[in-house]
Amino acid sequence: MITRSxxxxxxxxxxxxxxxxxxxxxxxxxxxxxxxxxxxQLAPQLTAMAASPNxxxxxxxxxxxxxxxxxxxxxxxxxxxxxxxxxxLVAQAERHIGLGSALMATALDWVSEQSTLKRVxxxxxxxxxxxxxxxxxxxxxxxxxxxxxxxxxxxxLLETLLMAQLFNTSIS
Length: 172
Hints:
The chain has 172 residues and is an alpha+beta fold. The protein has helices at 11-22, 39-51, 99-113, 129-137; strands at residues 2-5, 56-62, 65-73, 83-90, 119-125, 141-151, 157-166.
């Protein structure tokens, strides 16, 4: 298994991974537009992301197969461009063997050493204890509880947690 930044040539495999692993997963929020995205639309976005100082898409690969990914997304607004939102998903068959840790370690090294980010935050469902433990292991702290902030596939309203970590910054 290797981890590396996504490239334009990964677009089809990434779309396939989203369809098989991300879209059916009830632990992550997905963008409806991903279901209709084409390789021609995604490939240039991957190229732009690879050159961005505040956006990252890491892939975990077994050979050429994508078995996990981690995304840190930040906007262009100067007031908030230093804040990235982290999302992580490992293929169901590949969970609990260290892929999430490998992706987190690589991503947080990038944040510390190469990015312009000063804060990385994430939202995790209270029922997803393995993910909470992973994020705590990498220094994320609980900042808040958000009752009824996520609707599950079955229609239940679930609580999510806001967790975050600051990097190379002082607060004034």
